[in-house]
Structure formats: C-alpha cells, structure tokens
Amino acid sequence: MPRNLLVMIISSLGFFFVTATTFTSLGYVLYTMVAELGWSQAAAGFSFSLLGLACGLSSPLPPMMMKMFGTRLTMAFGALVLAVGFFIASGIQALGFFFVATSLMGIGFSLIAPSPAVYLLATWFPNTSARMIGIYFMAGAAGGIAGPLIVETIVGASGSWRMHWIVMAIFALIYGLICLVGIRDAMKVESVEQVTNAGASGHGATGASPWTVRQALLTPSFLILAFAMMVVQTVVTTMHSALVAHVASLGVGATAGAFAMSLLAFAGTVAKGVTGALSEKVAPKHLLVGGLALQCGAMLMLYLVRVEPAVYGAAVLFGIGWGLSWLSAHILLLRYFGAAIAGDMTAMATMATTFAVLGPPFAGNIADTTGSFATAFLAFAALLALAFFSTAFLLRAPRRPGDALAESAELMPAE
C-alpha cells in the first residue's frame, strides 16, 4: 500500500477513535458512573468540562512536539496518554482521579487530532489536500455517530462501565503501535508555524486584507459572530454531557439516550456537509440565523415535551441547526475579513468558545437542585434566542472607506 494512503487511513482512524471515545460518548458513560458512584450531576458536568478545557489548552502542544520528535512519535505518545487516561477511569472510586483521567483524555485527543493529521495530509497530498482533509473530517464525524452506540453495546454486554474504559485503553495502545509502524512525515517539521499553517494552501489563504487583526477584532461584526459561536459551542457541549441522562430520566433507559446522541451527531454531520454548497446560493447570514432558530426550538422541545419521540425530533433539529450555524459562522468570518487573516479571526473566535466548558457544570447543578435538566434547557433556549436576535438584526458586513471586501461579502449572495 502506498505510504500516503496508509498515512491517510491511520490518521482518519485516529480521528474516528478519539471522537468516538471522548466527547460524543462520555455522556453515556457518565450516566452509568453517576448512578453507581453517587456523584452529583454538577461534578459529572465538571469532569466533561475538564475534558474540553484540557483539549483546548493543550492545542499548542502538538506542533511543538512534532518539531522536536516528529509526527509519528507525537501521535503515538498521544495514544499512550489516552490509554493512561482510560485505564485510570476504569479503576476510579474517587472523583478527583476521574478529573485527572478526563484531563489526560483531552490532552491525548489534541496530540492525535486534528493538527498532526492535517499537517500529514497537507504534505503527503500537496495537490489534493483539501479533498483528503475533507474525508478526514468526515471520519471524525462518523466517530461521533458511532461512539454512543459502541459504548452502549460494550456497557450493555458487559454490564460494567469499567469494562468500557478497559477496552478503550487497549484499543488506544493498539492505535499507538499502528502509528509507530505506519505514520511517517513527508517532510521534516522545521517550525511550529509550518504545522499551524498546514492546509492553508489552496484555500485562498494568501493575499492582502484591508483589515489588520486588531481592527477586525474590534468590529461589531466579529463580536456578534464570536458570541454566536460561543453560545452554540456551549449548548453543544452541554448536550453531549446531559442528553443521555435527560432521556434516561424519562423512564426509557440510557439506550434511547445513546440513540438520541447518535441522531444528533448524524444530523449535524449531514448539515455541515451541505452548508458549504448552500452558502453559494443562500446568504450565510441567513443560514446562521436559521441554525440558531432550529437549536432554540430544539431546546424548547426538550423543556416542554417529555416523550421519547419528541426527544429524537429535538436531537435531529438541534443537529441540523448546529451544522448550519457552526459552518456558516466560519464562512462569514472568511468573507467579512478576508482569507489573509481568516485563520487568526477563527482562532480568536474559537478562543471565545472556551467559555463552553461552563455549560455542563451549570446544567448539572440545575439538575441536582431541581431533579431535572429541563430548566437548563430553557436557559439555553433563552441564550440561543439572544444570539438569534443579535445576529438577525445587528450583524452586518463590516465597512471601511474604500473597503471593497465588505461590499463583496454583502453580495455573495446578498444578505
């Protein structure tokens, strides 16, 4: 098998694995752990927050390690860190050790995906990197769909959440060995920037912009988009941590919750897949506003209706809204501020979404106090409504004297 194809397969497998075993399936495992160990929902939510926080804070680590040790050892070490986190989780009794475990899972995630893989694909496939990176992200999305169902199968068959963590730890070690055997750099990593800028070529990321990053950060347009992205990520993160427990509280069992999580991931994946094409015919602002409205409606459904079919419908609506709003917000950043600084603007907006880690413990605390997540869903519906109205009525392409970029952004297609 050609080396570049082997690298592609191993990288995609890694993204599938880390997505399936962390963010999208942790909510299911937490539900069974909370019931057995007597933890509060707030504590469970905080462990989920630590996973996301560790993942975000460790994101600068992969480029530095790749420069020092190469991508192969970086990804293999990430698999080892994941395995350690999983093994700790399999034997815990005290909550503090689980916080350590989820933090290690977040670090392991960053060391495996997506930064190292995007660099590998950009260098191994210089002429078709955009297509290969797209396939790679589809593999990660597939992990989100399969993850909850895989966990439900393991826990259901073994009757133990501890067995799930042991199985995942073994698979993490196996993946680390696969990385050692199959991953190779097409070119040596000489600098951190070489990794962070990978994949930018061929996407119009060159050329001058009429904006400086500092000017763009102070525009109302950026602040509104960053707020919308922060709200969306906060609610998405909370849904991953709370949906299974909410569905189980309806008396239909955790299996239905796992199915709802997979429906959400599937709908989000499909929506993200079509949003790029839709944005060429429909104004991205309209897609963003529509996506926020769908998510708000889904939150209201979860608050008002307590029957299983309604939960499935809410999961699908939320997934579609998530896919539409998340990708359209990134498209608007590109169109408003230009490709030359789009990476910086996206990084700054993504930094704002770090506040999303507050969502799971907030919802968990409400569930501990009221006995239900319903009030939390209502609060998130209000937050999404605020993002909806600010985006619908206040968001405009930023204008500067002689700024042709803003005028063209308004016309592709017109808002």
Automatic annotation (TrEMBL):
InterPro entries: MFS (IPR011701), MFS_dom (IPR020846), MFS_trans_sf (IPR036259), Proton-linked_MCT (IPR050327). GO terms for molecular function: transmembrane transporter activity. Pfam families: MFS_1. Keywords: Membrane, Transmembrane, Transmembrane helix. PROSITE patterns: MFS. The chain crosses the membrane at residues 7-31, 37-57, 69-89, 95-121, 133-151, 163-183, 216-236, 242-266, 287-305, 311-334, 346-367, 373-395. Residues 7-399 form the Major facilitator superfamily (MFS) profile domain. Gene3D superfamilies: MFS general substrate transporter like domains. The keyword Transmembrane applies. This is Major facilitator superfamily (MFS) profile domain-containing protein.
